[in-house]
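Tokens for Non-specific lipid-transfer protein 2-like. Go.
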Amino acid sequence: MKRFSFVSFCAAALVLLLFSGETRTVEAVTCDPSQLSPCLAAITSSKPPSATCCSKLKEQQPCFCGYLKNPTIKQFVDNPDSKRVASTCGVAYPKC
């Protein structure tokens, strides 16, 4: 019985040790297509996207499927130029 208790104690200590490391928090993203305005120049011309554009694309990435479901916004998000900018920034285009 003592051996079982010791093994249980060691297993519990190991679990605590493993899970007490880095804790990740998930921040909620506010979906706001106007946050993508820094990308407008890159989408409407052949200019490369700015660092701000890429940052905003990455920040708004969880919102892309919602944007694609909105007929007003979809035309701006679902076009070859937008896909090119996203690809240049290393942001995967969603498959919704």
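The chain is about 55% helix and 0% strand.
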